[in-house]
Q: What sequence folds into this?
């Protein structure tokens, strides 16, 4: 079942500006990825997968990378800092799940990850980051991308130089989150450093951070010159962000979903999670997603409390039905 090597250029064919779903641990699971593809995402990424855990044959970890046909093109994101283990796990994950791309996480700011020298800690060691990219590129029979940040902290912003090292070692696509590690997820997003990074390399760069509306998308693209966008939180409970941004870029009118359509989408997401994980785990996993879908709707706050207190899927469906009814009054 040898599939044709995915070409990065296909994401940009005909001058298209690709809109990617950025990876989110605990969020961009197979259900979310498939829904976002359905709503127009051009690329999706798995939750981050520990290369070390793949190396030690941890079954649950590898399951994060399971990809079905309805969620492609897809990148499997790996994290770690040992070039040999990163290379080995990239090759193994490619063999098992045939992703279109392997993405390397060099942006995660979480203490547990950084303490091991992984994620954004690699921004303090560009030479090691380069060796990792080289090893993974040599081992994986697909393009390799890297997601990283503006830098470690305000005094050590190094994304443009860092990007050059990644490119020189074989990365074919880059994604920069315009915040530093110490900033975590707090505003602002530094559009200047994204622009400098775009200008520093020849490979395409996706801009990431704070793109929650078509206006944000136009600003990010116009100011930075980035080749495409990666959207994370803007897609939570709002997978139509991809269609909305696409319509704006194409100069078409976009009609946002009505409250009833939003509830219908929430229900589909919920049913897919329950079908995949079973009733109890599905209901639990769906809670955060439903909270996002309901955001701003009449009665959302009390509905969220009730949803978080039940493990009965029928009760969740009934609560969603009540919100839908209330939204029509
Ligand atoms: C809950 C959550 C989990 C995340 N997990 C990952 C991850 O596994 N890998 C990664 O590269 N970035 C991860 N990120 C960062 C996002 O991909 C993205 O860079 C960040 O949220 C900024 O984009 P946004 O403003 O569109 O949300 C995560 C972010 C959030 C909020």
A:
């Amino acid at each position: 079942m040898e599939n044709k090597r995915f070409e990065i250029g296909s994401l940009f064919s005909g001058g298209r500006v690709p809109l990617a779903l950025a990876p989110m641990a605990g969020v961009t699971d197979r259900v979310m990825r498939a829904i976002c593809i359905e709503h127009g995402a051009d690329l999706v990424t798995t939750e981050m997968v520990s290369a070390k855990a793949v190396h030690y044959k941890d079954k649950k970890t590898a399951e994060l990378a399971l990809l079905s046909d309805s969620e492609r093109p897809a990148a499997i994101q790996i994290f770690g800092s040992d070039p040999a283990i990163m290379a080995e796990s990239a090759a193994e994950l490619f063999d098992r799940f045939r992703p279109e791309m392997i993405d390397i996480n060099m942006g995660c700011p979480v203490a547990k990850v950084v303490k091991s020298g992984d994620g954004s800690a690699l921004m303090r060691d560009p030479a090691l980051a380069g060796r990792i990219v080289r090893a993974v590129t040599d081992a994986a029979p697909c393009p390799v991308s890297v997601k990283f940040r503006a830098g470690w902290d305000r005094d050590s912003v190094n994304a443009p130089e860092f990007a050059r090292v990644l490119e020189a070692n074989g990365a074919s696509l880059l994604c920069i989150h315009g915040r530093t590690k110490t900033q975590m997820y707090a505003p602002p997003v530094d559009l200047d450093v994204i622009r400098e990074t775009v200008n520093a390399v020849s490979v395409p760069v996706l801009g990431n951070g704070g793109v929650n509306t078509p206006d944000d998308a136009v600003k990010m693209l116009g100011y930075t010159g980035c080749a495409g966008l990666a959207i994370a939180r803007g897609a939570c409970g709002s997978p139509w962000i991809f269609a909305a941004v696409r319509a704006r870029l194409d100069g078409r009118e976009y009609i946002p979903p009505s409250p009833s359509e939003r509830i219908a989408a929430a229900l589909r997401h919920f049913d897919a999670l329950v079908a995949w994980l079973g009733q109890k785990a599905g209901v639990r996993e769906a809670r955060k997603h439903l909270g996002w879908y309901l955001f701003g709707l009449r009665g959302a706050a009390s509905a969220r409390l009730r949803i978080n207190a039940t493990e009965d899927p029928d009760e969740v469906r009934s609560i969603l039905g009540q919100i839908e009814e209330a939204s029509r009054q």
